[in-house]
Amino acid sequence: MEYRRRAVLRTGAAGVATALAGCLGSNGGGSEGSIVGEELALATTTSTHDTGLLDEVNAAFEERFGVRVAANADGTGAALRSARKGNADVVLVHARSLEDEFMNDGYGVNRRDLMFNDFVVVGPAGDPAGVRDTEAATAAFDAVASAEATFVSRGDDSGTHTKELAIWAAAGLEPGGEWYRLLGDGMGNTLLHANEVGAYTLADRGTYLSMRDTVDLEILLEGPIKGGPELLANPYGIMAVNPAVHPSVNYDLAMAYIGFFTGPECQELIEEFTSNGEQLFFPKAVAEEPNFQQYVPEGWRPDSTDE
After folding, report:
1. Closest to 34 in 3D by CA, of 72, 73, 66
2. Which residues contact 259 (CB under 8 A, 6 or more apart)?
3. What is the pLDDT of residue 306?
4. Which domains does the chain have, with CATH numbers?
5. Do strands 108-123 and 233-241 pair parallel, antiparallel, or not at all (unpaired)?
6. Fewer CB within 10 Å: C terminus or N terminus of the chain?
Protein backbone atom coordinates (compact mmCIF):
# COMPACT_ATOMS: atom_id res chain seq x y z
CA MET A 1 0.00 0.00 0.00
CA GLU A 2 1.40 3.40 -0.98
CA TYR A 3 0.56 6.77 0.46
CA ARG A 4 -1.08 9.28 -1.88
CA ARG A 5 -0.76 12.93 -0.94
CA ARG A 6 -3.95 14.77 -0.08
CA ALA A 7 -4.61 18.31 1.09
CA VAL A 8 -5.63 18.67 4.73
CA LEU A 9 -6.29 21.95 6.51
CA ARG A 10 -6.54 22.40 10.25
CA THR A 11 -7.60 25.46 12.18
CA GLY A 12 -5.50 26.67 15.06
CA ALA A 13 -1.76 26.24 15.63
CA ALA A 14 0.83 25.91 18.33
CA GLY A 15 2.68 29.07 19.19
CA VAL A 16 5.96 27.76 17.85
CA ALA A 17 4.41 27.25 14.42
CA THR A 18 3.68 30.96 14.29
CA ALA A 19 7.25 31.71 15.32
CA LEU A 20 8.51 29.54 12.47
CA ALA A 21 6.21 31.08 9.89
CA GLY A 22 8.87 33.46 8.64
CA CYS A 23 11.48 30.70 8.40
CA LEU A 24 9.58 27.95 6.60
CA GLY A 25 8.02 28.40 3.21
CA SER A 26 4.69 26.97 2.13
CA ASN A 27 4.60 23.79 0.06
CA GLY A 28 1.23 22.55 1.29
CA GLY A 29 -2.16 23.86 2.27
CA GLY A 30 -1.08 26.49 4.81
CA SER A 31 -1.07 30.22 4.18
CA GLU A 32 1.88 32.02 2.58
CA GLY A 33 5.01 31.60 4.71
CA SER A 34 3.33 29.31 7.23
CA ILE A 35 3.31 25.57 7.90
CA VAL A 36 0.06 25.73 9.86
CA GLY A 37 -2.50 23.26 8.54
CA GLU A 38 -0.06 21.44 6.27
CA GLU A 39 0.29 17.67 6.07
CA LEU A 40 3.50 15.67 6.28
CA ALA A 41 3.66 12.37 4.40
CA LEU A 42 5.78 9.93 6.43
CA ALA A 43 6.91 6.56 5.05
CA THR A 44 8.05 4.32 7.88
CA THR A 45 8.26 0.79 9.26
CA THR A 46 5.73 -1.37 11.06
CA SER A 47 7.94 -1.58 14.16
CA THR A 48 7.66 2.15 14.87
CA HIS A 49 3.90 1.87 14.48
CA ASP A 50 3.27 -1.47 16.22
CA THR A 51 5.10 -0.39 19.38
CA GLY A 52 3.04 2.80 19.72
CA LEU A 53 6.11 5.06 19.66
CA LEU A 54 5.08 6.77 16.44
CA ASP A 55 1.68 7.75 17.84
CA GLU A 56 3.31 9.58 20.74
CA VAL A 57 5.95 11.33 18.63
CA ASN A 58 3.51 12.39 15.93
CA ALA A 59 0.97 13.68 18.45
CA ALA A 60 3.66 15.84 20.06
CA PHE A 61 4.83 17.11 16.65
CA GLU A 62 1.31 17.92 15.52
CA GLU A 63 0.59 19.82 18.72
CA ARG A 64 3.83 21.74 18.47
CA PHE A 65 3.52 22.81 14.83
CA GLY A 66 -0.21 22.82 14.12
CA VAL A 67 0.15 20.30 11.27
CA ARG A 68 -0.91 16.74 10.53
CA VAL A 69 1.33 13.69 10.04
CA ALA A 70 -0.02 11.10 7.60
CA ALA A 71 2.04 8.01 8.40
CA ASN A 72 2.13 4.99 6.12
CA ALA A 73 3.69 2.16 8.13
CA ASP A 74 5.07 -0.56 5.90
CA GLY A 75 8.31 -2.49 5.56
CA THR A 76 11.52 -0.53 4.96
CA GLY A 77 11.74 -1.64 1.33
CA ALA A 78 8.16 -0.60 0.59
CA ALA A 79 8.66 2.72 2.40
CA LEU A 80 11.73 3.53 0.32
CA ARG A 81 10.04 2.51 -2.94
CA SER A 82 7.12 4.80 -2.12
CA ALA A 83 9.53 7.65 -1.37
CA ARG A 84 11.36 7.07 -4.67
CA LYS A 85 8.05 7.78 -6.42
CA GLY A 86 7.58 11.03 -4.52
CA ASN A 87 4.78 9.71 -2.31
CA ALA A 88 6.49 10.72 0.93
CA ASP A 89 8.19 13.80 2.33
CA VAL A 90 10.30 12.01 4.93
CA VAL A 91 11.40 8.41 5.51
CA LEU A 92 12.06 6.65 8.85
CA VAL A 93 13.48 3.15 8.34
CA HIS A 94 15.98 0.63 9.71
CA ALA A 95 18.12 -1.00 7.01
CA ARG A 96 21.33 0.96 6.51
CA SER A 97 22.25 -0.83 3.26
CA LEU A 98 18.91 0.14 1.69
CA GLU A 99 19.16 3.66 3.12
CA ASP A 100 22.62 4.06 1.55
CA GLU A 101 21.29 2.89 -1.80
CA PHE A 102 18.45 5.42 -1.53
CA MET A 103 20.95 8.19 -0.72
CA ASN A 104 23.45 7.17 -3.40
CA ASP A 105 20.70 7.20 -6.02
CA GLY A 106 19.93 10.81 -5.10
CA TYR A 107 16.47 10.31 -3.64
CA GLY A 108 17.32 11.20 -0.04
CA VAL A 109 19.07 14.11 1.68
CA ASN A 110 20.05 15.04 5.22
CA ARG A 111 20.07 11.57 6.72
CA ARG A 112 20.38 11.40 10.50
CA ASP A 113 20.94 8.57 12.95
CA LEU A 114 17.83 8.54 15.11
CA MET A 115 17.64 5.69 17.60
CA PHE A 116 18.38 2.00 17.95
CA ASN A 117 17.30 -1.21 19.53
CA ASP A 118 18.24 -4.73 18.47
CA PHE A 119 16.93 -7.92 16.97
CA VAL A 120 16.25 -11.06 18.95
CA VAL A 121 15.67 -14.65 17.88
CA VAL A 122 12.43 -15.85 19.41
CA GLY A 123 10.72 -19.22 19.42
CA PRO A 124 8.74 -21.76 21.44
CA ALA A 125 9.75 -22.40 25.03
CA GLY A 126 10.57 -26.03 24.19
CA ASP A 127 13.24 -24.82 21.72
CA PRO A 128 13.45 -28.01 19.59
CA ALA A 129 16.39 -26.62 17.56
CA GLY A 130 18.49 -25.77 20.62
CA VAL A 131 18.87 -22.08 19.83
CA ARG A 132 19.42 -21.33 23.54
CA ASP A 133 22.71 -23.21 23.32
CA THR A 134 24.12 -20.86 20.66
CA GLU A 135 25.96 -17.58 21.11
CA ALA A 136 26.05 -16.27 17.54
CA ALA A 137 23.19 -15.32 15.23
CA THR A 138 24.67 -17.46 12.45
CA ALA A 139 24.87 -20.46 14.80
CA ALA A 140 21.25 -19.93 15.86
CA PHE A 141 20.07 -19.90 12.25
CA ASP A 142 22.22 -22.93 11.44
CA ALA A 143 20.63 -24.80 14.37
CA VAL A 144 17.13 -24.02 13.06
CA ALA A 145 18.02 -25.10 9.53
CA SER A 146 19.76 -28.30 10.70
CA ALA A 147 16.70 -29.28 12.74
CA GLU A 148 14.36 -28.15 9.95
CA ALA A 149 12.37 -26.44 12.68
CA THR A 150 9.65 -24.14 11.42
CA PHE A 151 10.92 -20.60 10.83
CA VAL A 152 8.57 -17.78 9.86
CA SER A 153 10.18 -15.05 7.78
CA ARG A 154 8.55 -11.67 7.29
CA GLY A 155 9.43 -12.04 3.60
CA ASP A 156 8.42 -8.46 2.90
CA ASP A 157 11.67 -6.65 2.01
CA SER A 158 11.52 -4.88 5.37
CA GLY A 159 14.48 -3.93 7.53
CA THR A 160 13.91 -7.05 9.60
CA HIS A 161 13.74 -9.23 6.50
CA THR A 162 16.92 -7.59 5.16
CA LYS A 163 18.70 -8.38 8.42
CA GLU A 164 17.41 -11.96 8.38
CA LEU A 165 18.74 -12.51 4.86
CA ALA A 166 22.10 -11.05 5.90
CA ILE A 167 22.31 -13.57 8.76
CA TRP A 168 21.47 -16.51 6.49
CA ALA A 169 24.13 -15.30 4.06
CA ALA A 170 26.71 -14.90 6.83
CA ALA A 171 25.92 -18.45 7.93
CA GLY A 172 26.47 -19.69 4.38
CA LEU A 173 22.89 -20.98 4.17
CA GLU A 174 20.03 -20.62 1.72
CA PRO A 175 16.81 -21.40 3.62
CA GLY A 176 14.04 -23.25 1.85
CA GLY A 177 11.70 -26.16 2.07
CA GLU A 178 8.54 -26.74 4.07
CA TRP A 179 10.13 -25.63 7.35
CA TYR A 180 10.83 -22.11 6.00
CA ARG A 181 7.70 -19.98 5.64
CA LEU A 182 7.64 -16.60 3.87
CA LEU A 183 4.75 -14.66 5.34
CA GLY A 184 4.95 -11.33 3.51
CA ASP A 185 3.55 -9.36 6.43
CA GLY A 186 4.51 -6.93 9.20
CA MET A 187 6.32 -7.71 12.44
CA GLY A 188 3.24 -7.91 14.62
CA ASN A 189 1.45 -10.38 12.37
CA THR A 190 4.65 -12.37 11.90
CA LEU A 191 4.95 -12.82 15.67
CA LEU A 192 1.30 -13.83 15.92
CA HIS A 193 1.72 -16.39 13.15
CA ALA A 194 4.95 -17.80 14.63
CA ASN A 195 3.17 -18.10 17.94
CA GLU A 196 0.22 -19.91 16.35
CA VAL A 197 2.40 -22.55 14.64
CA GLY A 198 5.10 -22.79 17.32
CA ALA A 199 7.83 -21.42 15.09
CA TYR A 200 11.04 -19.43 15.34
CA THR A 201 11.39 -15.95 13.89
CA LEU A 202 13.62 -12.87 13.97
CA ALA A 203 11.98 -9.89 15.67
CA ASP A 204 12.96 -6.39 16.64
CA ARG A 205 13.09 -6.15 20.41
CA GLY A 206 10.62 -3.26 20.60
CA THR A 207 7.78 -5.03 18.81
CA TYR A 208 8.41 -8.27 20.68
CA LEU A 209 8.33 -6.54 24.07
CA SER A 210 5.17 -4.64 23.18
CA MET A 211 3.48 -7.96 22.28
CA ARG A 212 5.05 -10.23 24.88
CA ASP A 213 1.82 -10.59 26.84
CA THR A 214 -0.07 -11.79 23.75
CA VAL A 215 2.37 -14.48 22.55
CA ASP A 216 4.02 -17.50 24.17
CA LEU A 217 7.28 -17.06 22.26
CA GLU A 218 10.47 -16.54 24.27
CA ILE A 219 13.73 -14.77 23.50
CA LEU A 220 16.21 -17.56 22.81
CA LEU A 221 19.11 -15.42 21.57
CA GLU A 222 19.57 -11.85 22.77
CA GLY A 223 20.88 -8.96 20.71
CA PRO A 224 23.73 -6.62 21.69
CA ILE A 225 21.60 -4.57 24.11
CA LYS A 226 21.65 -7.58 26.44
CA GLY A 227 25.18 -8.70 25.55
CA GLY A 228 24.34 -10.68 22.41
CA PRO A 229 26.09 -10.61 19.02
CA GLU A 230 26.62 -7.27 17.30
CA LEU A 231 25.19 -8.74 14.10
CA LEU A 232 21.75 -8.31 15.71
CA ALA A 233 22.10 -4.51 16.11
CA ASN A 234 19.12 -2.54 14.76
CA PRO A 235 19.78 1.17 14.10
CA TYR A 236 17.09 3.51 12.73
CA GLY A 237 17.68 6.44 10.40
CA ILE A 238 15.56 9.32 9.12
CA MET A 239 15.89 11.19 5.80
CA ALA A 240 14.13 13.89 3.84
CA VAL A 241 13.10 13.11 0.27
CA ASN A 242 15.20 15.15 -2.16
CA PRO A 243 13.14 18.13 -3.43
CA ALA A 244 15.45 18.41 -6.44
CA VAL A 245 14.14 15.03 -7.61
CA HIS A 246 10.53 15.50 -6.50
CA PRO A 247 9.69 19.25 -6.35
CA SER A 248 6.23 18.47 -4.93
CA VAL A 249 7.56 17.13 -1.63
CA ASN A 250 7.15 19.30 1.46
CA TYR A 251 10.85 19.64 2.22
CA ASP A 252 10.43 22.41 4.80
CA LEU A 253 8.01 20.37 6.86
CA ALA A 254 10.17 17.24 6.44
CA MET A 255 13.16 19.10 7.88
CA ALA A 256 11.02 20.42 10.75
CA TYR A 257 10.04 16.81 11.51
CA ILE A 258 13.64 15.59 11.36
CA GLY A 259 14.71 18.43 13.63
CA PHE A 260 11.94 17.63 16.10
CA PHE A 261 12.60 13.87 16.11
CA THR A 262 16.35 14.34 16.59
CA GLY A 263 16.03 17.18 19.12
CA PRO A 264 16.52 16.80 22.88
CA GLU A 265 12.79 16.84 23.73
CA CYS A 266 11.88 13.98 21.41
CA GLN A 267 15.05 12.06 22.20
CA GLU A 268 13.98 12.19 25.85
CA LEU A 269 10.54 10.93 24.82
CA ILE A 270 12.22 7.96 23.08
CA GLU A 271 14.35 7.33 26.18
CA GLU A 272 11.30 7.22 28.42
CA PHE A 273 9.05 5.18 26.12
CA THR A 274 8.52 1.76 27.70
CA SER A 275 6.30 -1.30 27.56
CA ASN A 276 5.79 -3.41 30.67
CA GLY A 277 8.57 -1.43 32.31
CA GLU A 278 11.15 -2.13 29.59
CA GLN A 279 12.67 0.47 27.30
CA LEU A 280 11.88 -0.25 23.62
CA PHE A 281 14.19 2.20 21.82
CA PHE A 282 17.40 4.01 22.66
CA PRO A 283 18.01 7.56 21.36
CA LYS A 284 21.06 8.11 19.19
CA ALA A 285 20.70 11.53 17.54
CA VAL A 286 22.12 13.69 20.34
CA ALA A 287 25.78 13.09 21.17
CA GLU A 288 28.68 15.07 22.58
CA GLU A 289 30.75 13.93 19.60
CA PRO A 290 28.52 14.01 16.49
CA ASN A 291 29.21 11.32 13.92
CA PHE A 292 29.70 12.83 10.46
CA GLN A 293 29.20 9.44 8.86
CA GLN A 294 25.49 9.41 9.73
CA TYR A 295 24.81 12.13 7.14
CA VAL A 296 26.27 10.24 4.17
CA PRO A 297 26.23 6.63 2.92
CA GLU A 298 28.51 4.30 4.86
CA GLY A 299 32.03 4.23 3.44
CA TRP A 300 31.60 7.53 1.60
CA ARG A 301 34.70 9.71 1.37
CA PRO A 302 35.14 13.11 -0.30
CA ASP A 303 37.14 13.22 -3.52
CA SER A 304 40.74 13.50 -2.41
CA THR A 305 42.06 14.49 -5.84
CA ASP A 306 44.05 17.73 -5.62
CA GLU A 307 42.89 20.43 -7.99
Report:
1. 66
2. none
3. 43
4. 15-116+236-286 (3.40.190.10), 118-232 (3.40.190.10)
5. antiparallel
6. C
